[in-house]
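Cross-posting from the modeling subforum.

Setting up a comparison between two proteins and wanted a second pair of eyes on the formatting. Protein 1 (sequence, then structure tokens):
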Amino acid sequence: MGEIERIREEYRSRDRTIPSDFYAWHRAEIQYWQANTARVCARLLCENGVFPITGSAIADIGCGNGNWLLEFLQWGATASNLHGVDLLADRITSAQERLPGVDLRCGDAQKLPWPDGSFDLVTQFTVFSSIAAVHVQEEVAAEMLRVLRKGGRILWYDCRYSNPASTVRGLSRNDVRKLFPSCSVRFAKTTLFPPLARVVARRSWALAGVFESLRFASTHLAAVITLNG
């Protein structure tokens, strides 16, 4: 089985085995995760001179059903400037229903369907940790850089640690730097260990924030990646 088909099958398996409401918005831990992840990513973009994003052309790689594209609309982006690609056709169909006017494509991120230098901001949320083959990660990273305009940025959010109970492959700071060797990278740790978040965030967001500030409690890295030169 090739890597792309393996990824498709992995997501089919998740759809079969994970309860449909596991990531539902009525869950306090999901509300906390979304709010905190958005806060950290927005802060990084502000610190790197990316805000405001009004007028910016943005591509979300592995856009799924469009959650982060919806977030970008709240941050000031316009639908005509938003673009997304995902490997799974049913997720693109769902995104199209939620995001009229947004350019959404079903495809392989190793061959992005846009010309060189198309975007001011290219984003990815937990795409690379789903890819087991390093050469595929490298090809996706190269494509993200290809479609980025001079002076543009990549917004990264992904797992720091591998999950032995699944195929999730964590990426360290050094792993990210190796994927983008000609770039400068500014990192931030984020995301409280999910089993702990499911307990703590349901009781107190403030307490969840305290736990998340502990050195080893954050399971993900957010980053802004800038092409040098």
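Protein 2 (same layout):
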Amino acid sequence: MKKILFFVLLMVFTLSSTMVFAGKWVAKPADPAKSENKLSEAEVTGMKNRVEEISNLDKSNMTVAEKRELRKESKEIKESVKKDGGYIYIGGSTILLIVILIIIL
């Protein structure tokens, strides 16, 4: 009984402390114009097609600078599509706590 009470109190304090720390940080977008605009499906497919074109190019005759430009362009396209996608990030400790709660309950 003491072990269960200890783990319950530990989880309560752990979960409440993450909420306190999470409330202090405020995300500031790097470029407000880019973060407010959502990409349409046509733009996303166009960007994906451009990335495929870049990957299928014959890069043996290109200079180092041209290759670097293509690499930067493909990275920028991938990041813009990824930002627009709305991914959810869940940390490992959060998943562990959720699993423990499910097992206990």
